Amino acid sequence: MANLAASITQEPDVFGNFDGIRLINRGWLTEQVEIQLQLHGDSISIWKPKYREQTYSIKCTTIDHRYKDAIDDTYEQEMLGDSLPPCTNSEILVSVLEKGRSKPKPQTKYGAFYKAGNYFAFHIETYDPESVGYQLDFYVHDRPNDPSDTGARHVGFSFLLPLDLKSAKGAKKIPITGLSHRPIGQIEFKYLIVKPMIGAGFNMKQTFQRYWKSTRQPVDVGHRGLGSSYKCKKLAIVVENTIKSLQEAANHGADFVEFDVHLTKDEVPVIYHDFKILITYRKKKRDDLELFEVPVKDIALAELQQMKLSHPAYQSEHKYEGIQDDDVDPEDIQPFPTLERLFEGVDIHTGFNIEVKYPLMKADGTGNISDYFDMNRFVDIILAVVYRKHNGRRIVFSSFDPDVCSMLRLKQNLYPVLYLTQGVCPRYQPYDDIRTKSVEIATEFALSAGLLGIDVLSDMFVEDLSLIKYVKDSGLVLFVWGEGCNDKDTIQKFKDNKVDGIIYDRIDFYKTGEKESIFKIEEKRKLDILQRVGSISRTEDSGSFSRMEDRNTNNEMHDSGTDSQ
Q1: What is the pLDDT of residues 419-431, one digit of tens each?
Q2: Which residue in 546, 531, 196, 252 sits closest to 380, CA to CA?
Q3: Residues 389 and 260 in one domain
Q4: How does pLDDT run across 112-124, given as a tens digit for each residue?
Q5: What is the CATH number of the domain that holds 77?
């Protein structure tokens, strides 16, 4: 009876609270669609001089455009007046990439404050995207610091018809109409349409999207496997992004291996770094060879795997080197292995850091590839292979494209996502997207999108290690990458500063300490404990472990290992 009384008086569990930690994540898309209306930088132009220097807020209201089908005469239209029917099955959140404002929240009475030069987004979830239009109302705040908002004045509005759902991304420019029904300015925004992934069967049994074992030592990640084989100060001894390279990194103690995924013309996920390849051809009346650059997405898998190719990173004096030779290399060092083949060919204890490649506009206007895959279909195809072949392997996704990161996060709830960023660094041509500009804004975007963390070019921390604290204090996981990591002292410095993962070339040369994956070490310790308590026995002939109550150990072992992400 005493135990019963104790159980009755015990405080009830509170959703989201566990062991003193409160963490609630947004779910994933099942049947609904998320539409993001994004304002990048200086998106609003106000023509009236008296309004240009004012503080603005913007509120978004969804409109059910099916109302127009019910209006069958002038009288009903006049009776409807300015009161357009709201879309009742839609939810709207808003995020502004500033410290403390980045996580999507419900709108206030006047929406949310807009600040020129920043990033601002409405997140709309709806089950009926074909019928949802949008009304944007603009308010000027004479007293922006007044919490009662008594100084807010409605000065204009814009209307947006239902978006074309055929394309995942787009941009629009629409007028801002004043209360006297005259245009007073214009607003330019981008939109992203994230559709649910159908048929995968994700559920709430397990999720590692925001989970990372913080007590574990920083993980060592093999860049493109054993490292870059075309340009870096210490070239890899095996061709990068091949099965051999990835397995060799695993053999030398890589906890994760990082590699790049594209789609071929026939929509097969393959491993390759660059967006384009160089095809060699000979001119009609000359023996001279020429190189022709072609996007990977324009060539079918069988063609890619049969062609004799040059790599874009080759220096000009070496670009034709070996082009006339037969290629008799074994399959595991051939370029363009499929993603599916990697799951079969690399040690199950080695985690995969899968970088999803998608063209992103550079600040100089380059970087786009015409007629690229629709982003929804692109991400769905890659996720489908991973979900089908993972077999309990630890997996982390990453991408330089912030919209790809949002899609990876919203379409599933099993795997974590890192936002890759290089900031503004002289080493690389910067991207145009405002979310790529700094460590701070990358941090705020990751919080906004519900990502596990960010993956930052190491150069960004060379002069300012305090940025590591900015990221970690935000509750995010932090990886670093880049040629600057190819140094034992630098790797150790990052580990001492509590970075969670370091991506570098030549694991075989630069890794210190244990020359075995931490996950293999943990698995051996776990099995040793199970053996000592009698749950498993060691077979005398091979020395391998087997469960006494269940001999089918493969999936069970790997599933139990997944919780150590």
Answers
A1: 999 988 888 899 9
A2: 196
A3: yes
A4: 999 888 999 999 9
A5: 2.60.40
